[in-house]
Amino acid sequence: MKRAIFPGSFDPFTIGHYDIVNRGLELFDHITIGIGRNSVKKETFPIRERLSAIQKIFQDNPNVDVQIYDCLTVDFAKEVGAQFILRGIRCVEDFEYERNMAEANKQIGGIETFLLYTRPEYAHISSTLVRDLYSYNKDVSAFVPNKLR
């Protein structure tokens, strides 16, 4: 069974993330969405709220589960039996960072990273954008999956 993790942190789960997970399911038998804790940056949405919301989105899909993790991404992948880390790329600038992270994941933990480009219609949407709009009490419903609205 080919398993992957889709790691995150304090970021809101956007429709771009949703798209990457669904497209990842065409390549992998199972995906674990990981919600990592970030002690440095302030969370926009509490971790338990994010966990519950993402579980609700994928509640009818037995090939996706959602877990909180407090370790290195490569250690989390090994913990859940994943052979791959699935990451999304929104733009060319993301590619360099993600490629470097993929190399580090391979060297540190022997885990391969699979990079998928975000579909063009979602490329302008980032967790940072959603977080910033939300902090100004703006409506972010256009940027999150329907089941989160």
What would you note in describing this structure?
- By secondary structure, this protein is an alpha/beta fold.
- The chain has one domain: HUPs (Rossmann fold).
- 37% of the residues lie in helices and 21% in strands.
- It is built from 5 helices and 5 strands, in the order E-H-E-H-E-H-E-H-E-H.
- A 5-stranded parallel β-sheet has the order 3-2-1-4-5, sandwiched between helices.
- Helix 3 packs across helix 4.
- It is globular and about 40 Å long.
- The model has no long low-confidence stretch (mean pLDDT 87).
User: What is the name of the CATH architecture?
Assistant: 3-Layer(aba) Sandwich
> For the record, what CATH class applies?
Alpha Beta
Distance between the termini: 33 Å
CATH superfamily: HUPs
Rg, Å, rounded: 15 Å
Report the principal-axis shape: globular
Give the integer mean of the pLDDT values: 87
CATH topology: Rossmann fold
Report the biggest beta sheet as strand number plus sense, adding barrel if it closes: 5 strands, parallel
Return the string of H and E elements: EHEHEHEHEH
Secondary structure topology:
Layout: E1 3-8, H1 15-24, E2 30-36, H2 47-57, E3 64-69, H3 73-79, E4 84-89, H4 92-109, E5 112-117, H5 127-135
Parallel strand pairs: 1-2, 1-4, 2-3, 4-5
Helix pairs in contact: 3-4
Annotation keywords:
5 helices; Rossmann fold; 149 residues; globular; alpha/beta; five-stranded parallel β-sheet
Summarize the structure.
It contains 5 helices and 5 strands, in the order βαβαβαβαβα.
